[in-house]
Amino acid sequence: MEYFLSEQQKTLKSLARQIAEQRILPVRAELDEKEEFPWDLIKEMASSDLLRVFIPEEYDGLGGGCFDLCLVVEELSRACGGIAISYAANALGVLPLMLYGSDSQKAKYLPAVASGNRLAAFAVTEATAGSDASAIRTSAKRDGDQYVLNGTKQFITNGGEAEIYTVVVMTDAAKGSRGASALVVEKGTPGFTFGKKEKKMGIRSSATRELVFRDCRVPAENLISREGMGFIVAMRTLDRSRPGVGAQAVGIAQGALEAAVEYAQQRVQFGHPISAIQAVQHMLANMATELEAARALVYATARTIDAGAKSFTEESAMAKLFASDMAMRVTTDAVQILAGAGYMRDYPVEKMMRDAKITQIYEGTNQVIRSAIALEVLKRKAKLE
Amino acid sequence: MTSDGSGDIWVVTEQRDGRTKAPSIALIGKARKLAGERQSRLTAVCLSQVVEDAAQLAAYGADRVYLLDGPVPDDWNDDAYVKELVDLARREKPDVILATSGSLSSSVIPRMAVALDTGVSPNCISLDFDHQSRMLVQTRPAFGGSLMANVVFPNRRPQIATVRPHAFKKGDPDPSRQGEMIRVDFDRQAVSAKTKLLNVVKDLSGKVRLDEAEVVVCGGRGLGKAENFQMVAELAEVLGAALGTSRPPVDDGWVPYAHQVGQTGKIVSPRLYIACGVAGAPQHLAGMQTSEIIVAINEDPRAPIFEVATYGMVGDLFKIVPLLTKKLREARG
Amino acid sequence: MNVIVCIKQVPAKIKIEIDPKTSALASGGVDRAINPPDLYALEEGIRIKEKTKGKVTVLTVGPAKADESLKEAIGYGADDAVLLSDPAFEGSDTWATSLVLAKAIRKIGQFDLVLCGKQSIDGETGQVGPMLGEALGVPFVSLVNRIDELGQESIKMMRMSDEGHQLIEMTLPGVITVVKEINVPRIPSLRGLMAAKKAAITVWNARELGIDPATVGMAGSPTRVSRVFFPQRASQGEMLQGDPESQVEQLVERLRQTRAI
User: Mind giving me the DSSP string for A202-255?
Assistant: First the structure.
């Protein structure tokens, strides 16, 4: 479908594709196999300005919006969902600063992220808390002009590799989710260490670690917005980042569909390529249709956000939900079309299926996402404004 | 330079370690046929006087053999070769100059052409005389072999073409044929030393060079994994062939890039090309479809490689290849 | 150091059709791109410029729309670009093309090194680089895979020969062609590409280059394409039947008959 991209968006998309095809494709299987964080690729993306895309111009960025970010994430994901998430998680890490940070916080951190000198990460999840932010146990106690952090964050994407962490902690546990606050913690701060690197099913080139805080002292000026705003910061951040997960899902599915079509046209059984078999054709037709519907929803949501809509929690959740469920179906069907070959690790589609799974899980499981959507639908009585 | 009607055909031959390379000998054979068709004289030009097998060139068809006093080709000096060829051509005004493609056609031949105010038709796979126009019609592939072009020189002479190695079959030598051996000594107005050879690094692999080999055995993705290349390597060894591969095994790191045959690898045109488990993607076909005999072994009868194959064998290459190796080994004793 | 890089714009996807009337190649509507082998020359030129604080000028001979490729080259890091374009240049062979490039380089005047790719992916001749060297009357080295030393007066480099490699010293100014082993071309930056879209591309025609139209184009080219055709796939291929044992026997028999072994 023609989405009428601007000249700059077309250039951005083709640049991301160039990186994906020339740099990522040749190494994706190896990085997946070795579970290696793609630092070379991150540097390459930085030097081609991809890390500047979503940062405002006054902080050395290119002032792009959610849509520009989605275009890049989609193209990178078409080649490798793992590398794409390392890129997207960096954007997620600075979103709290972009939305709620003070001018001095922005001036301190955003240019370093724009240039690619420092990566960022966002940390909410804990062993006992994920979607339930009120259950956060990591505490930050005010002590003079410092906060003292104690606790452990779990499953943090870019954990250990990033240098700038936006962390949601409890400053007043008695207030429940209203007692949560967001803080910036820099790598290297005494008392801040990392757990072991997690072994994952998919997106294996990305790094996932625990963040461990033991009497970790952080300057009070690192507080984002005000005390008690942590939950709001986290929710608004996720509202903006979820279309990115949708874009990741769309990209992974695109890669899987291309592989399935190529294989179906080459694989000959009973004297014909299997693409001539109606059962296979219908699978491909469904895959392509669902993929395009998901892409349209993700793009429309991102453009709505960029156009300055006030509330988009529901749309953003829908984009993530629909695209990630679609990606799971499409990659599963791609494996089915490649059949025996699809199940083998010599072919890329089984990796796509493993990578797709996480899009149904992170930034809110699709079950929690459905609850959030239902809440909005009930609130507006399903009426269109 | 305009034609003076002498109609001489020259073949610039290449030597290594004092011996003429097989593709040059094959080209002499082809040029002999062309010369016979229009009763021209055929001259083999050697870039050095140290040519042990100069008499061979006559046996394969050269009426005259020029032995230039340039440095031996192992001591490369393009500047000297260009100067000597140009001086000689200005003096003798040949109608046609032919050479095999390779590093000569990446430097010496086109530079010589410009100095003689004429063009080059490079990497030809066939040469014919048009008797009406008396022009040499040169056929060369372009666009990765998906297209062929006939090239002619309407009014400039000499007509210069380079041909792919093995584009022509080696002829039968006639030992009774005698050629005139002419040593050419130049006034050594020392070629201005604008380029200087400092060192030579020879490939130590000792293996047959892919783009010069008369037989190439190629293993593709169908081999499944790097270790299985041993099987095709054994077949190559029995045949004295060079080992080639298609792009996927290179991309997957099974085989070094130097072995890749195709548009983005080496272009080969051997007398015999055996493709084992190669599907035959267009980019691969572009690199080998001008081979004289193509044998394709693949389990998929629809593999595009069969479209260019002289002999196709549908079946399990893990059975066929070892059998073939065994059979050939027995045949060699 | 003043570096000149010669590039060619080629079809981005090699999809060929022949105009049945004129025998000319019709590749209308197909996206066009910088000839991939030329990207190695461009990259090497930009690296030399960065190292020597010099300047890279990119040249191409082509139609008006070839300026897109020149802009892209600026996006990669070239400083300047000149499009050599004139209806008189149409149909130029490698000889005439190198003549036009040589005239342009003479017009530019001062240069130290000219870089060209090994060959184009459409014409596949690999002749323009060496012909340009000769037309300029400067030294030339082909198939360079590594530059070892770059001085004011000379360059030391490794070139690929038929037997291996040769280390060669060449005085400057000179012309070289490079192979893909020489570098890994960078990915351009978004800002660079966007800025380059607005870059002004100088265009020189035959008159500005002091070229007699009769000496270039179809009329002035020594070689002429008299016919273009699709290769005849010799589909007289024979499928050998039977079990592996008998297939192999048949093959060996046939190879013997044809004296292939």
Answer: S-TTS-EEEEEEEEEEEEGGGEESSTT-HHHHHHHHHHHHHHHHHHHHHHHHHH
